[in-house]
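General statements about sequence and structure are easier to judge against a single worked case. Part of our work consisted of pairing the sequence of a single chain with a tokenised description of its backbone. The amino acid sequence and the backbone structure tokens for this protein are reproduced below.

***
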Amino acid sequence: MPEEGHPEIMKTNAIGRVYTVHPNNAECFYLRMLLHEIRGPTNFTDLRTIDGYIYHTYREACQRLGLLENDNHWELTLQEATLTASAEQIRKLFAIILTTCNPSNPKQLIQRQKYVLKNTSHWH
């Protein structure tokens, strides 16, 4: 059925086009991922609801669905760095990972690395 006043536009309940979003526009990027994954959402809360739990962000919902890669390789990289690198070098490496590698859960990554670094001689 044509949209009133616009005979070339059809009115439907389906999304016709989802535009590309750069990952730097984080929540929009994760929203887009969820729009491709979740069937039949009727509101934005539906997109953040996974197994009956409403996540605070679209990113958290994406993580719960397994749409994002985990940060194991970044954790291993930082752990290996503690064997030979100085504290300053480790901090620089961590900054590079955060700013250029887009880890899936940066808060969790830093929390785990705090524990690792506290238990090495580099944490001073």
In short: The mean pLDDT is 80. Helices lie at 26-37, 44-48, 58-65, 72-84, 87-100, 106-118. Residues 2-65 form one domain.
